[in-house]
Amino acid sequence: MTSTDVKGPESAGDPVANEVVGGAAGAAPVLAQEVISEEDRGRGKGPKLEDEGIAVKDGKPSAATRGERHRSFDVAEFSRPTSKNEEWRFTPLRVLSPLFEDLATEDREGDPAVDYQVSVPEGAPEVGTLAPGQSPRGEALVPEDITSAVASARTDQALHLRAPRNAELAEPFRLTAHGRDAERRSNAHIVLQTEESSTATFVLDHTGSTRMAENVEMVVGDNSQMTVISLQNWEDDALHIATHHSKVGRDARLKHIVVSLGGRAVRVNAIGEFSAPGGELEKLGLYFADEKQFLEHRIFVDHAAPNCTSNSAYKGALQGSGARSVWVGDVLIRREAEGTSTYELNRNLVLTEGARADSVPNLEIETGEIEGAGHAAATGRFDDEQLFYLRARGIPELEARRLVVRGFFAELIQQIDVPEIRQALSDSIEDELQRSMN
Amino acid sequence: MSVLEIHDLHATVETPEGTKEILKGVDLTIRSGETHAIMGPNGSGKSTLAYSIAGHPKYEITSGTVTLDGEDLLEMSVDERARAGLFLAMQYPVEVPGVTVSNFLRTAKTAVDGAAPALRTWVKDVRGAMDNLKMDQVFAERNVNEGFSGGEKKRHEILQMELLKPNIAILDETDSGLDVDALRIVSDGVNRAKESTDVGVMLITHYTRILNYIKPDFVHVFVNGQIAEQGGPELADRLEAEGYERYLAGAK
């Protein structure tokens, strides 16, 4: 694989494939990357550091700071995105336009737009619901775009899954959202909560087809341990814009995993905030875009408290004409976040011609008193020479691709603690490969 | 007993200046147990010969035939050729990130044999072959060719040859860039394979040095896309003394 390591934004693959997002892509306003820190080098763990490009700010207020984006529950305060908006410039707005409409969920008598199945582990209370403003709903998530605002306003009763104080739940909560009609709109707001010193895993599985505007709100209580696995296993015609917003309490730990394999166009914006010292946040993502599929993942880690640690790693594979992925990783270390340690990584593997991956890491630092900060982004191409090498050893083409893709995703998949999901995921990746080989 | 037969092989490559003929009628027959040294100056088409036989998509065969035990190799895909018993040790082996040597070797062995190797003997075979090539066992867990030195890459190629046990092996400038120690280790590996499997070898080289370690039965001088002269090992001695000038003058 020819690998290029870059500072700042990177695009790889077919430049023509970019046209679907309109004229705005190409100019990449990024923060000046002035200082290369040595802090990260001695950590001795985590991914190998290829590159550091870090913007150190001197604490002067600036509109560019990711943390200052407007937030509100009022739909009227948001306008429809255009390709001139930095945060939407990669997104195919025409394809996703139904999700910028302020529409109710299209349930019909005895025929809901989405079927929800929830199973709750032993030791947890039954599923509850929360009206807007009813605590803890709204403690973590305040919408920052129109789709999220509509999803919130149009969900009267948010599902509330809760691990009680001190509970150690061995089995995961499972929530399956199965879309029943690709033409119908659905809105969802889900609140996941681990109370003080509890431990729980939440698996959200999205299947079938719909046009979903979704909010996932994670309230991670002090000293608790939450794992969230969100699977986007949609059919080929689903549209999905999701906002995941977590607030990590004192000494709490959140492992947040996003896996996007299905859907026509999927955008997941995953925001993680530290509200108190000692928190730890791990953000993992895996995606596989195939022909004419658009998958966008944005993360924002807001270090607003001292002595917190965050680690983000997203990996994506792309194959087929018009396969498109976007990864934008924003990390903000605020003035008060002394002792922060953070690292973010994105890797893409372009398997065929006509696919395109964009990768934009941004690191904003407002204090010098940190443990370490770094980022890396690289896109590699599985090229003809690699294929020839493997085939010259008797390995058929499909098997060769499988070998490379498996190897690429292996370390991420190993970090998913639910064995049957690990297995299902490996199987799904095989399917993706098989499908686009035929 | 295997036989690779190349008859009147012509091949072209696309260049910015247009289609260029590189192979201009090659005739060559290699049988099990035989070692044929193909020697020639840079740019004479030696590597093109190797890659054309292996099926690299960059080269187009415009006429001629290549058969292995009577089967038409040119009709086969790259991986089918390998499964038919052909092996190419490459001059510049490519990196394959994310795929460990151990996984790669097992996958290749399974593909070539049509069945997964018995685990116990396989692990022992790999370990033994690596020891013979003075390769540290940690190589097994490294990604294929990633961060390997030039010598390590060549040893890794010969390791594959020893484990996959081809009928006919083409070694494309396996000796280039090796120091004497590495050259000896690599040559020992080739000689071991010759002894244990009776493999037929096409040894492509620019330099005569490797012939001190691997004894050829036949030497072919390759110039301007054709075999200009052939003979026994004594021809190599003559090349050592005179170089390629004589042939190049004739080609002009």
Q: Describe the biggest sheet of chain B?
A: 6 strands, mixed
What is the helical fraction of chain B, as a range of percent? 25-40%
Fraction of residues in helix of chain A: 10-25%
What characteristic shape of chain B results from the CA principal axes? globular
Q: Care to describe what's here?
A:
The complex is a heterodimer of chains A (about 450) and B (about 250). Chain A is mainly beta. Chain A folds into two domains: about 1-385, no CATH class; about 385-438, no CATH class. Chain A is built from four helices and 19 strands. Chain A has helices spanning about 145-155, 385-390, 395-415, 420-435; strands spanning about 1-5, 10-15, 55, 115-120, 130, 160-165, 175-195, 200-220, 225-230, 240-250, 255-260, 265-275, 280-290, 295-305, 310-320, 325-335, 340-350, 355-365, 370-380. Chain A has a 19-stranded mixed sheet that branches. In chain A, helix 3 (about 395-415) packs antiparallel against helix 4. The longest helix of chain A is centred in the last third of the chain and has 19 residues, at about 420-435. The two termini of chain A are about 25 Å apart. The model of chain A is unreliable at about 1-10, about 15-55 and about 60-65 (pLDDT under 50). With about 250 residues, chain B is an alpha/beta fold. Chain B has one domain: 3-Layer(aba) Sandwich (Rossmann fold). In chain B, about 35% of the residues lie in helices and about 30% in strands. Chain B contains eight helices and twelve strands. Chain B has helices spanning about 45-55, 80-85, 100-115, 120-130, 150-165, 180-195, 235-240, 245-250; strands at about 5-15, 20-30, 35-40, 60-70, 70, 85-90, 95-100, 145, 170, 200-205, 220-225, 225-230. In chain B, strands 6-9-10-3-11-12 form a six-stranded mixed sheet, sandwiched between helices. A four-stranded antiparallel sheet of chain B has the order 2-1-4-5. In chain B, helix 6 links the parallel strand 9 (about 170) and strand 10 (about 200-205). The longest helix of chain B is centred in the last third of the chain and has 18 residues, at about 180-195. Chain B is globular. The model of chain B has no long low-confidence stretch (mean pLDDT about 95). The chains are: A mainly beta (about 450), B alpha/beta (about 250).
